[in-house]
Write a structure and sequence with these properties.
about 50% helix; alpha/beta
Length: about 220
């Protein structure tokens, strides 16, 4: 029986190195901003994200992601769309890591009700949120639309705490992505995210809310 290159390397103790090289080669075909973001996520022991326009990328189903990229203007070609979808799905390996990182997400209520991709796609997306929200290291919260006070009016944001190094921020708008390293700016994002979480429904209330929306979809 023929032994694969990767299998042979593992036998002689080099499997970890070759596996890492294989991963690097696979990621090389993704856009640089995606690769940079994936590296930050892979190194994070804690992450928080507030999303106000659509479901946060790490929480998306493949069909939901594909629907989003097909809505881009100017239009993207199918090859680019599939490459972007694959990159986003690969980043979701963060949920399989051990030790498990501490992850929190705040979603605007509208993101649960906007039927991107159609009813079937949205139902699967809501089910995905419920499944992920039940993981022990993940908390998903919903920000109700009827909140009068809202600390997230400046737009979506993310905070990432690496294994070694200071906490980072990440902001994204349209096609522009920026990693925030300045301590003063990061502290501002931390304060905003803390208030956003306090203003949102609790994780338990949020799962019940998502289940309610699923029943209405």
């Amino acid at each position: 029986m023929r032994t694969t290159t990767l299998g042979a390397a593992q036998v002689v103790g080099a499997g970890g190195i070759l596996a890492a090289l294989t991963e690097d080669v696979a990621q090389a075909r993704y856009p640089k901003n995606v690769r940079d973001l994936a590296k930050l996520e892979a190194d994070a022991v804690e992450m928080g994200a507030y999303s106000n326009h659509n479901i946060q990328g790490l929480l998306q189903t493949e069909d939901y992601t594909r629907a989003l990229f097909r809505m881009r203007r100017p239009l993207l070609d199918e090859e680019t769309i599939e490459r972007q979808v694959a990159a986003r799905m690969d980043r979701q390996e963060i949920f399989n890591r051990w030790p498990a990182p501490i992850l929190s997400f705040v979603q605007e209520e509208v993101t649960l009700r906007r039927p991107l991709g159609g009813r079937v796609v949205m139902r699967a997306q809501l089910e995905r949120l419920i499944d992920i929200g039940r993981l022990r290291n993940v908390e998903i919260q919903v920000m109700p639309t009827d909140r009068e006070d809202h600390a997230g009016m400046g737009g979506q944001l993310r905070l990432l705490e690496p294994k070694d190094g200071p906490k980072l921020g990440h902001v994204e708008v349209q096609q522009f992505s920026r990693v925030v390293t300045d301590r003063k700016e990061v502290r501002t994002l931390e304060a905003q995210y803390g208030i956003i979480r306090a203003q949102a429904l609790t994780p338990r209330e949020s799962l019940a809310f998502i289940e309610k929306v699923l029943g209405e979809t």
